[in-house]
Amino acid sequence: MNTHRTCNNYFWTKEEDKIFENTLATNEDNNNLLEEMTKALPGKLADDIKDHYNILIEDTNAIKSGYVPLPNYPKMQNQNSKAYVEW
């Protein structure tokens, strides 16, 4: 991954990231995704949004190809209708 491009992530707040993710999830098949993103994130330039999206794609491709190991999350089990974490 290009280090220069990952520095762009630093300028995205958690709130902006959440808006980005929600807009992507609700408009993934929309031909006007970039337009929807710029409406939802008025403080971001279209190029910033494109870079952020491309970094997301690079990250998910690295995970899918096995370059980035997934964390060893505890197994969840349902016991008596309450969530139970098995450590």
TrEMBL record:
Entries under CDD domains matching the protein: SANT
Keyword Transcription regulation in annotation: yes
Keyword vocabulary terms for this entry: Nucleus, Transcription, Transcription regulation
Source domain of life: Eukaryota
Gene3D superfamilies: Homeodomain-like
Protein name as annotated: Myb-like domain-containing protein
